[in-house]
Write a structure and sequence with these properties.
- GO terms for molecular function: formylglycine-generating oxidase activity.
- This protein is an alpha+beta fold and 282 residues long.
- The longest helix is centred in the N-terminal third of the chain and has 14 residues.
- The chain has five helices and nine strands; from the N terminus they run ββββααααβββββα.
- The radius of gyration is 18 Å and the shape is globular.
- It has one domain: paralog of FGE (formylglycine-generating enzyme).
């Protein structure tokens, strides 16, 4: 894991800093400040191999690490398990919020908040991308990587992902983490592209996500924040301040996970020699 120091962090962007105004970019503005305690975050996304070890455990020992609101009879095996294109050393995909939550608890960790995730990706200077302030297609696994093209328009993007969805000749959608394409200031690998990553933040309130699902309709507080974009994404979905959302049991083949380890508050208070109120911690 990688250590991320505590302190104030400016999340989001000012309108003139938004690199692509193509999707719901207004959810990423304005730039605001939050204080974050120090924490540790996984250097790499969780791989298929790691996740499969978790589901083997669940099948043998039961759902002892699962979310209390998890649907009865929940299947945790990733929905890409039988597809050979999703290789053991590739980031896990095809998992929902409940899967991600249970895996993190099984590892003795947690899902990151959107603030933690964004700070780990953007560094202390608040870069627009993990490597700088300009998009570099050579540093990401995104829609343009599938066929070696530059995605310059929404129409071209739609045609590319439709082709990829129907193309059985593609050897792989995701790529191995052995040769990382992007590394943040703090040394966190592959935070942009390849796979979306679940957070534990509620899209509406930005607080702790508590899944709510009743009948066949979604509620405003039934959406968790996802970050980072995937192999299907347009660049306008991938800058770290962009806030995507989805319902808690959506298991697209683009959705993955990275965990954090939070430092107990009493240890932080002891180090700082002063109390920290819960209101300051997100």
């Amino acid at each position: 894991m990688v250590f991320i120091p505590g302190g104030f962090f400016e999340y989001g962007l000012n309108e003139n800093e938004v690199p692509y105004k193509t999707f719901n970019w207004n959810d990423s503005v304005p730039k605001m400040k939050v204080w974050l305690p120090p924490f540790f975050i996984d250097k790499y996304p969780v791989t298929n191999k790691e996740y499969d070890e978790f589901t083997d455990f669940i099948e043998e020992n039961g759902h002892i690490f699962c979310h209390p609101n998890e649907p009865e009879g929940k299947e945790h095996r990733r929905n890409t398990y039988w597809d050979p294109r999703y290789k053991p050393d590739h980031p896990v995909t095809g998992i929902d919020f409940y899967d991600a939550f249970a895996f993190a608890r099984w590892k003795g960790k947690e899902l990151p908040t959107e603030f933690q995730w964004e700070k780990a990706a953007r560094g202390p200077e608040g870069l627009i991308w993990p490597w700088g302030n300009s998009f570099d297609p050579t540093k990401v696994r995104y829609s343009g990587s599938l066929y070696g093209t530059n995605i310059d328009s929404l129409d071209e993007w739609r045609k590319t992902i439709l082709k990829a969805h129907q193309d059985t000749s593609l050897d792989s959608y995701t790529i191995s983490l052995k040769n990382p394409t992007n590394i943040s200031f703090y040394g966190v690998v592959d935070m942009v592209g390849n796979t979306w990553e679940w957070t534990r933040s509620d899209f509406k309130t930005r607080r702790m996500f508590h899944p709510v699902w009743e009948s066949t309709q979604t509620k405003a507080n039934a959406f968790a924040v996802l970050k980072g974009g995937s192999f299907y994404s347009h660049p306008g979905l991938m800058f770290p301040s962009y806030r995507a959302k989805d319902i808690p049991f959506c298991r697209h083949n683009e959705m993955g996970i990275r965990c954090v380890k939070n430092i107990p508050v009493y240890l932080i208070q002891r180090a700082l020699k002063k109390p920290i109120t819960n209101k300051a911690i997100y």
